[in-house]
Structure formats: C-alpha cells, structure tokens
Amino acid sequence: MDLANACASGCGDGCASSRTESGSGMWPASSPPSPSSTVSTVIVKGTKVCNAGCTYCSTPPEDAQKWSQDDFEAIFSKLAPLLTEQCILIWHGGEPMLMGPDFYRRAFDFARKIKPEIRFSLQSNLLGYESRTWRGVFEDVFKGSVSTSYDPDEKNRLLRGNAGLYAKVFFDRLEAVLADGFHPKVISTFDEESVHLADSMYERALAAKDRHFNLRLNYRYPAGRAGGRGELLAPRSYGDMLVRIYDRWISDVPPFVVTPLDEMLKKSITIESHRCPWTRECGGRVLSVEPDGGVFNCADFADLGDPAHRFGSIWTDDAAALMGSPAAKAVRRRRVDLPRECQACRHFERCEGGCVRDAVLYGKGMGGKFHYCESWLMVFDRIAETVADGRADGAVRMYGGGPDGLRASMGAQAGGWRGA
C-alpha cells in the first residue's frame, strides 16, 4: 500500500505517517525529548508485501519479509521505554492485513501487558477484508480506528494490473466494512489532472448518510515509484480545492470529517496543538520502524530512501543511541531552524512551518520552507474569515467550541492582518 501518498502530505492516513489517518497524530507540549517516554505515535511496518500494485507507491515492496510474533515482541520491548502511556501504534505497509488477524490479536495482547493504555490503528487497502475473520479484530484491537485509500480517477491503484478490478474489489470490501458498523477514513490523493474529482469524493460520502465514511484529501507527491517526477499538484490548485470543499463542509456540517480541513479548523480554534503536519515539534514525539528494523522520524522520511535520515536500527541500537543520533537531532532542530518568512507569518502559530520532511523532499532542506505553504495560507485565511463572520458556527460547535467568543477573537485577528 502506498504510505506516503496516503498521508497528510500527499497515511494517511495517516499517519499516516506520522501524518496518519487512523490515529490521533497529536501530542502534548513538553520539554525537549530525551530517551525517556516522549514518543506518542509509532508508525510500524511489519511488511512491505502488498496485494496491490500502485503506480505511484511511495514504499514499493522490496522483499517478502514479514515480522513474526517474536520479532514484534522484541521490537516493542525495545521501544517501550520511549513510549508514552497512551501511545498509538499505527500499522502500515505494504499491506498490513497480510500479517493476518491472529498476529494483531497476539501483538495487542503483548503490548498491553507493558503499556495497558496503548492503542492500535490500521492503514489498509481493505482488499482482504472479510467480516468473519476481521470484524472482531477491527472491533477489539483497532477499536474502529481504520483508514484506507482510493483515488477517484481510478488509474493508478491496480489489482493484478487492473485499475477497474481494484476499484470494484475495493468498494465491495468498503461496503462490507461499513455494513459491519465501522466508519473508516478514505484517503484520496490528487495530481493536477485529477484534483477536480475531490468534489465527487465529497458527494459520495455525503450520499452515504448513516453509513458514511470520513475523507482525507491529499496532494500526491514524488516519492517511491513517483520519484523524480517533480511537483505533481501545484500549491494553488490544491489550495483552491481545499477551500472549495471547506465551504461545502461548513455549510452542510455532515456526520463525517474532511481532513486536513477538520484538523486545521481545530488548530485554528485552539482545540488542538502539535498535530502533524502543522507542527515543528515532531522530532522526539514520533517514530517509524521499517520491516528491517530501520528507525526514522516518520515513515515519510523513510520513504525518501536516504540513509542520512535513519536514526539507527531497533535491532542493534538502544533508545539513547536512536534518539541521540545525528538524524534525530537534525529533526529536532526544526523547532528553531525555520525560515524567517515562516516565523513572521500571520498563521505561524497554526502552521508552525509545516512538514519538515516535505521541505527536504522538495529540495529546501531541514530548515527550509514547506512546499505547500500557499495551500495552508489559503485554508487558514478562509477558516479565520468564516469563524469571524459566523459561517463556521456549526463546525465550531461540532468540536465543542463556543462560536460567539471565537467570532470576536478571530475577527480581531483578521482585522489586524488586514491592517498590517
């Protein structure tokens, strides 16, 4: 399964990676990380084996390696000292369902013996879902925290080399998941040719009513099999699409969320803080473990294929060595190593400079500017405008906010921006 393009930058759902769909992706502010328990999200790839073949897969299968139960127990035991009590493990791949339902039951039972409040989440293409074998695992292990992937252009996600077959099987399986009472998040990625199809995904979710699924609308980016293709979706095009869908979403106030819009709204009205990718403090809060035991800040960094971003190996390095590695220190420097333009921006407290991995991906370096800055500016501006004039009242209430007070404070901020 294509991980990087499933994530917020283009997981998710995630998760992913770090920008994952299924999990919270959020952590509390605290002192700088040490080898103590600061990691609240771990993206785990037990395999890169996949039952699909996507043309832009960012993490294509390298071999048939899969973790055994013993492998997981050894890995988790080494990770445990780094993890917060309510840490979430987000299972990616490859296709994680190929590990089998019993693997996850045993893994969850083992992890809870060490961290009783730990949570598991799943990013899967769902092609292997059968109610009789997986429903209980989705309920008992993942607690319904599941995300999946589908692109409405139906060109790039292939099953046995056939895009039409992928779409048919996917919707059959999605329908089974919905019939079992789950509401997964469906992640769609877009390029310049397909970005207009985002509305069709919104309309499909809206038409589902009680059996709805949630949405994530991501930009597609050049990693893995799409490496070297350059920018696949212009920031202005992505921003126009997000603003258009946002206006529909706050007007309809449907029972489903549309990410990244929901998370950007919550960040704007201070319901959340430090949510990937709108944070400069992911270093030391998130980790990713590859099938071979390689440890990175997140799965998106792993997908770059650059050993300079590797913290070390879970098999040979202890916690202090991993968190004290040059790669780990480089990510943590993002807290202070940001472009002056970002630090002076009207939305810096909301965006915090965007995703450091994407700054690297587009050639701007660890301290560089986030490539989709223009997109985020467009959305944050529209959020401020609609909170201030009351159009977003329904969405604000949905998240427990008080529209009246927010209208006044956001209006004052927006007035200051216009007057500056």
The CATH homologous superfamily of one domain is termed Aldolase class I
Structural class label: alpha/beta
| CATH arch. level architecture of one domain | Alpha-Beta Barrel
Tell me the helix content.
Answer: 25-40%
Shape: globular
Low-pLDDT regions: 1-34
For the sheet with most strands, the description reads: 10 strands, mixed
Proportion of strand residues:
5-15%
What is the CATH first-level class name of one domain? Answer: Alpha Beta
Determine the number of helices (DSSP H or I, runs of at least 4 residues).
Answer: 16
Q: What oligomeric arrangement do these chains adopt? A: single chain
What is the element string, with H for helices and E for strands? EHEHEHEHEHEHEHEEHEHHHHHHHH
Radius of gyration: 20 Å
Terminus-to-terminus distance: 46 Å
Order of neighbouring strands in the sheet with most strands: 7-6-5-4-3-2-1-8-9-10
Provide mean pLDDT, rounded. Answer: 88
Q: What is the count of β-strands?
A: 10
What does this molecule look like?
This protein has 16 helices and ten strands. The chain has 420 residues and is α/β, with parallel strands linked by helices. It has a domain at 4-268: TIM Barrel (Alpha-Beta Barrel), CATH 3.20.20. Strands 7-6-5-4-3-2-1-8-9-10 form a ten-stranded mixed β-sheet. Helix 1 (69-79) runs parallel beside helix 2, helix 6 (235-252) packs parallel to helix 14 and helix 7 crosses helix 14 (373-389). The radius of gyration is 20 Å and the shape is globular. The model is unreliable at 1-34 (pLDDT under 50).
